[in-house]
Fold each of these.
Amino acid sequence: MAEMRLRDALREALREEMLRDEKVFLMGEDIGLYGGSYAVTKGLLEEFGEERVIDTPIAESGIVGAGIGAALGGLRPMVELMTINFSFLALDQIVNTAAKLYHMSNGQLNVPMVIRMASGGGSQLAATHSHSLEGLYAHFPGLKVVCPSSPADAKGLLKRAFRDDNTVIFIEHTANYALKGEVPEDPDFLIEFGKANVLREGTDVTLIGYSGSVHQATRAATMLEEQEEISAEVIDLRCLRPLDMDTVVESVKKTNRAVIVEDAWKFGGFGGELAAQIMERAFDWLDAPVARVSCKDVPLPYNRNLEFAALPSEEDVVEAVLGMFKE
Amino acid sequence: MTTETSLSSTDLGAEQLGKFLYEMMLIRRFEEKCGELYTKGKIRGFLHLYTGQEACAVGSIACLEDKDKILTHYRDHGHALARGLDPNRVMAELYGKATGVSGGRGGSMHLYDVEKGFLGGYAIVTAHLPVAVGLGMASNMKKENFVTLCIFGDGSVGEGEFHEALNLSVLWKTPVIFFCENNLYGMGVPFHESLSTEIPKLAAAYNMPAVSVDGMDVLAVHEATKKAVEHCRTGNGPYFIEAMTYRYRGHSMADPELYRLKDEIEKMRARDCIVKLKGQMEEAGYLDEARFQELTDRVEQVVDEAVQFSEESPQPGIDTLFDHLYKEPANG
């Protein structure tokens, strides 16, 4: 084990996978000379050369499409789109090509590609640069969607993504890049997709988060314990597709209450899917309606006070939980 | 545009020319039959017929080797047949049958045959152009030296991805032939109303060699593509061909064709690729009535067989609905 920040854990994963498999290469916006806009790929150009670490023009659709072609040609590309906000420009390639070829070709073509992108608000970047779209990508059958919240998960899941024969949308919350944690150094360290992580055990309520919102959930759990003597279980989904509903349902059957915490908008969002599945599978165990703590239904403003008022906080989570215990 | 070709200016023999003629006739008859079957409700969904454009597919694809790849647009039956996909299985796909080249999951616009390097019809205009660049990257990185023939229509050139793909392809020197079948209309809009310049100039702007050829002349298409393949194969990066062509039928079976006059269609039919090659071969003594009848009969037989095969083929089982959703990981 070694202590490192999440961005360094991601870099280690990329390095190890490039060393392991010569078919792995990286392409993306400012990943080479600049070192990646969140410094994830720093030093990789020097180590692996420009054949395997390719700086691309700003052409999201073009480079994702090229990644698809490279994958069809037998390589294992990683495409970095800098931020998830720019992935709208590549949405057609992701949804209509990468997610569809395997099924539509009757299993003849598959697209083993990893698309990395930074997600989330909270940095005063205003509405166009603050999206949380994990749930959007999870909507499409054919894609896998992974969103780690800790350095160890980031490494294990990213390495696992390169072993997958399908397109993996790998989403990194910007607030998580500087997080520190213990990370295994074993080059065979992988984390299986579709296994949620119970970060904290509890008996009174289940808090479910993913990507950035795991941390609000965890802080809320501490507050609930210290201030309210409420024991909260915290689940990090880690992957939205495949989704580990079993772990969630098992927990809700134990605690009888569920609060979903997410940075995305509530309306039409992934939290609604979770709430529906909890209802379908654990209705009789619920002592209160499933609660959702989400982003307020507005584009995120630049102003710090306004932005923070829009984003979900641990206080919001605590409030939602307390609401469940009122008669 | 290049000048008129004649048999004397090519080194193609009677056998090769006969193959061209046969393939164009097969595509023509296959497509006519598809039109009939569509009106009978045997083929559903969108159906875009390729009649009139046969010289483009046959002339270009003949230049490829087995290891080369093809990506094309949704008007893709002609390219599939020219690449040697089994007509039975192409027709079965249009029927949506389990024996179809895409198992009945793709339909007319999404034909695939990996064994033949036929990596699909793409039904989102221009989506396959960046994909072709990626295949070119793989060819270069793996030193496999295969060429990707990327076929699209004039409707593609207004899309941003067209420009992204051309730029990337030149930057990264990928062995891709960008082959534009300019049939003069993007659905019902004449291409000169959609584009402020000429198509080859767009390629030239990205420093890509570009030519315009008569797409109604299989020999001209073949000649141009041969040069393009040579250019790509020897490590010079991409090459652009505009083939001026014409579709005799509407954009799809739903097209009332209010945007063009019957006159125009008749004028273009006078330059028909099959009639033209037939005439040239007769003149050279490569073809007589008996031989032509033989080809006609063979084509009829192949198409009839394809229909019969498709009629008799099973529907995909409902229990296969979730097949091919995710490929199981190789390890881990």
Amino acid sequence: MFEYDPVLYSRLLTSLTLGFHAIFATLGVGIPLMIAIAEWMGIKRNDPHYTLMARRWARGFVVIVAVGVVTGTAIGLQLSLLWPNFMQAAGHTIGLPMFMEVFAFFFEAIFLGIYLYTWDRFKSKMKHFLLIIPIVIGATASAFFITTVNSFMNVPQGFEIIDGAIRDVSPLAAMFNPATPTKISHVIITCYLTAAFVLGAIAAFNLLKGRNHVYHKKALHLTMVSAAIFAIGTAVIGDFSGKYLHEYQPEKLAAAEWHFETESEAPLILGGILTEDNEVRYALEIPYALSILAGNTPDTVVTGLNDFPEELHPPLWVHYMFDLMVFIGMYLAAISALFVFMNWMKKWNAFRRPVLWAIFAGGPLAIVAIEAGWIFAEVGRQPWIINGVMTVAEGATASPHVDIMLYVFILLYAVLGATCIAVLRRMFKSNPAEHELEERGIAHTKEQNVN
Amino acid sequence: MSYEVIGITVLWVFLYGYLIVASVDFGAGFFSYYTKRTNKNHIIHDIIQRYLSPVWEVTNVFLVFFFIGIVGFFPQTAFYYGSALLIPGSVAIILIAIRGSYYAFATYGAKESRFFTFLYGATGLLIPASLTTVLTISEGGYISYEDGHVQLLYGELFGSLYSWGVVILAIVSVLFISASFLTYYASRAQDKGALELLRKYALIWSFPSIIMGVIVFFLLGGRNPEHFSNMVDLWWMFAISFLAFAAATYLIWKRRNYGTAFMMVMLQYFAAFFGYGVSHFPYLLYPYLTIYDGFTNETMAIALISAFIGGLLMLIPSLYFLMKLFLFDADYVQGKK
Ligand code: HDD
Ligand code: HEM
Ligand code: HEM
């Protein structure tokens, strides 16, 4: 096979750990908000179904957080183990948000411990609701801080390099770089969107299985209304992200769109294949759309890849990742809006099987979009680890045995992932919502229409 | 105090915090497994569950805090330790991953399983063993540094008495710290059966912990004479440590003041850990790296220290709230809530 190359294996291992962590981290950021919404509705409408929803989601959430925490610990250590030179530079420039991220976890972890074990401990329900707020804030803050680190890797600023040494560091300038606003808002809102869709997919699945209790209908309605809002937000912020790329990382945008010649009135290319001599075939072209994505007007001039030296071209397959993400984004927006609309038209039945199937598919698809988005954003930065400052090869470790570690971690994540799914399934199968509703004596309360 | 000293003090305090809370957690895992094997699990199971369930995540954050913080304050450690520790570090990651997730799986998810308890017990002893590698190699002589490449000398590491001594010290300390805390917790819960059993464990592990401490102290003399003589100069800290140990063991033996006894155990480890740390000063890694040449720039140092103070202002009230609800609330501890 290939010759042992620590850089290659470090990249593979980092992608593996981050790709695995991203699933749990994304849900870990998004689900607390959904729990908070459900618990709030339960109090405001005095409807125990929503309270039970919050309770059941919280139980699943702990298992997901546990895997998020251990894989996060893994990536935190692995960054030093696999990218010692990068971390040395990063420590000087961007150590602050990493440090603050830990405080955010800490804060979240403390209140999560309290929240889980105090459901029936306070007299006032409102008091217990207040405990979820620090969890939502802590989770979102950790996404915020870690994403500023990633923004810095895309647009490094806030330091000077004088004779190879890092000088004049300004930690705040490094944190709040031009990539920060779009990156953070896009990452956070897609966390919310994904969580809403995954929980919605579970409700849809239950309804498809013929469990017709209003509990599931309420859950579906709640998640889809939230998802529709988040999906629209995602598309709007995604559009801003395109404008950001145009401004600061034109080579990434050009690679995503197979855009070679610098020109105005550039078309957006969907799908297709690239021939040997960089001809685009079989693609769907939307005229002017790339220029509009980049600068809101058809006459925006979009820089093409030919303006960059060949060795700085990112791999061109990121095009498919970008397309996949955008396609799924459109799909999620469409299906959640459709459901909300059908439910709003009183005469229509929104709970038809095709609609439920489409929502069910949205859960896994949202996770695919998260992965595709990260792969696009990270691979699109190649060959740089810190854009324009340090290449991936310079950042990597020179240790032997990274390959063995890669195999060991593949095994570890396979086992963890499989057990996690098995445990979650067993947890909810052995104690289905109907059973718990019965048990708590709220099976027949509030049978009125969902709205 | 210089920024370097503030930085290392903050980190060392957190590492000490991790040492205590993690030891309680690791030891509890081992006792839980061991009692299951000997069919005594029903006696202490509830105590362990009730304490651990709300706090396991907090324990993990102490560790994360340390290794993220050290890269922030001393970026060069990422280069030396990161390059050298690929394998031991990965082993520790894997053990931590297994432990954390299977604990959550067993507690929140599924029915109790023998296999999960076994993983939980075994990792509880293996994690401290693998983490102490870092302290061992910091003494120097276990790493080679040539043409910009750092390498860990495995033969040296596995062949050295000192490194094995540290491993055993870590394990027995975990068991002692954990048993003395759980004894206190059981006494608060007024759970007679658990108290008796845990008190017995605390006494069993008390002497091995102090004897290993003394052995490791002298083994270090052969390993790193410079560090050793600094430690001898700080003899009074180790004397305090010994007196605290004696007081703790005496109180547990006399079945009195378990709370004070546990405070004494904490003091014992505090004095020894800081005696070790202060005498290690200023080296982060003998003989390559001191806190002065590995330090971050001044602006970052000020930013980190400010963030740290801000963070503490937020954390201390929350931690207090957590302890008030789960540690000091007699009804909760006794299982009435
Ligand atoms: C559910 C997930 C999801 C969905 C539906 C979308 N995205 Fe996205 N996108 C992400 C999840 C994501 C992400 C995982 O959060 C990324 C990866 C890195 C980042 O900053 O966010 C991302 C990055 C990302 C970038 C690169 C930013 C950078 O490299 O700095 C652009 C230009 C877009 N997105 C644009 C869009 C557009 C126009 C969408 C149309 C609806 C869209 N995204 C939907
Ligand atoms: C957008 C990307 C990411 C998001 C949204 C995210 C979010 C999260 C969340 C929600 C958790 C669980 C923490 C908890 O609930 O207490 C977590 C854990 C963790 N993450 Fe990530 N993370 C991301 C990427 C990363 C990266 C790249 C790193 C590496 C520096 C990292 C380091 C960690 C660490 C060290 C933990 C464990 C903390 C603990 O012990 O509680 N994360 N992350
Ligand atoms: C959850 C959030 C993130 C995900 C899912 C993610 C995903 C990825 C992926 C898939 C790669 C592989 C790229 C390739 O093989 O070419 C990668 C590379 C890398 N990422 Fe990110 N990334 C995230 C955020 C971050 C952050 C915040 C940091 C820094 C603290 C970071 C550090 C790195 C490093 C060091 C590499 C290796 C260099 C490279 O191949 O570009 N990542 N990441």
